[in-house]
Specification:
The protein is mostly helical. The protein is 48% helix and 9% strand. Helix 2 crosses helix 3.
Length: 135
């Protein structure tokens, strides 16, 4: 059993091992109630999801966590996962494109280019334009 402290804004940090066991993450909603003198937090459903949608949402949660922890080796969301994740409040609706595999593939390439030193620094916009014109 873990002990947690209530912060100045009534915030409670749930231990990582508890989040993992419950398959919870940032953006999930919990119902709080008092039962027999105890505070009980219960995950609230993201609405009436079909079993396939629940599975997709869990996959999306795992992928989002991986992207946040290691963008260079993670995979992006499918369009269906991105839609469900935005409906569940895991990602912002207007940012769905960034979380998709189509975009994350480019992010991985950038990470590889940075590690390999395939980048240039320019002193001015004119220097950048001259370099582009050489190609």
């Amino acid at each position: 059993m873990s002990t947690v402290r209530i912060g100045p804004n009534r915030q409670v940090t749930i231990p990582q091992d508890v989040l993992e066991k419950m398959e919870l993450g940032a953006g999930d909603t919990l119902e709080a109630e008092v039962r027999e003198g105890k505070l009980v937090l219960t995950p609230k459903s993201a609405g009436a999801l079909a079993p396939e949608e629940r599975k997709l949402l869990q996959q999306a949660k795992r992928k989002i966590a991986r992207i946040r922890n290691d963008m260079a080796r993670s995979r992006g969301l499918t369009p269906a996962e991105a839609d469900l994740a935005s409906r569940a409040g895991l990602i912002q609706k207007d940012q769905r494109w960034w979380w998709t595999e189509a975009w994350q593939g480019g992010e991985r390439q950038v990470e590889q280019d940075l590690k390999a030193g395939r980048v240039k620094v320019f002193e001015s916009a004119n220097d950048l334009l001259q370099d582009l014109r050489k190609r």
